[in-house]
Amino acid sequence: MSAPRAGLLSRIKIKPDWYLILIVLMGAAATIAPAQGQAALSLDWVTRAAIALVFFLHGARLSREAVIRGLTHWRLHLVVLASTFALFPLLTLGLAALPAWITPPELAAGLVFLGCLPSTIQSSIAFTAIARGNVAAAVAAASASNLLGIAVTPLLVGLLLQAQGGVDARSVQAIVLQLLVPFVAGQALRGWIGERISRNARVVGLIDRGAILLVVYTAFSGAVVEGVWDVLSGLDLARVFALCAALLGAVLALTAVAARVLGFDKPDEIAIVFCGSKKSLASGAPMAAALFPAAAAGVAMIPLLIFHQMQLMACAAMAQRYARRPDIEAVSG
């Protein structure tokens, strides 16, 4: 079993790194040749269509059976959801409130936005499997996080950033509908198209990732046109990197401690740690484009891009450490 796990782990390490390179290249392309004028307007409409398609596909491929199968483990799911939608927002709100010499004011809204996002699905499940954790619970918890995040994330962002003017609270309801309508449509059509989507998972994945690249280019184009690089410096990015590292370390530690204090066994602890400590780029990029004006969306995604790669590297190392524990520990927990 160790060889398949090692192979899966190597794929998890390599693929996100290459994809992150593509995302960085899209940001660089937007810096060198940003979309402007009529091209920007046309690209904005294409991006909106891509966002709708992404959430339609999420709805069509999300297994309701997987969620229902794990719902009986309600204590575990409550811990994961509390970490995702309560602990994270509180911590990032605290980071955003730090003095300007610690937290760059231009990136404070992006930190709060990061804290409000749902968990990942694929990597949370994959790392839980590698670490010999409760995979069924991870499937249900990560799926529930993404399902709730479609409605909860815009509401949280609107609530927490309203005082700073980061998001127009009056448009939150319209944004929720923009994300929910295609998602619900996908769920409604799942019985007809779910099998076809499953058979073409690679094509669907390419569409998903391609849409995110498009969102990144569009968002950064708007930010560049508005002069983002005249405002942000290398020191600002370094400070956000340090803040994201501190945030990830705190959440990993707190979720592990909470799981042990609440009496969960080791497989459950693994599911809680990996599902409760991640933030989804797949959901975050389209949500940023929907929630923020074009000039602000690119800046808002910077903490997410940094945190996303950081969480993959840290959790890959943790999954290896968990997997090396004695078998008897996983059985007796």
UniProtKB/TrEMBL annotation:
The keyword Heme does not apply. The keyword Membrane applies. It holds the Pfam family SBF_like. InterPro entries: Na+/solute_symporter_sf, Put_Na-Bile_cotransptr. GO terms for cellular component: plasma membrane. Keywords: Membrane, Transmembrane, Transmembrane helix. The chain crosses the membrane at residues 45-64, 76-102, 108-130, 137-160, 172-189, 240-263, 284-307. This is Predicted Na+-dependent transporter. It comes from Phenylobacterium zucineum (strain HLK1).
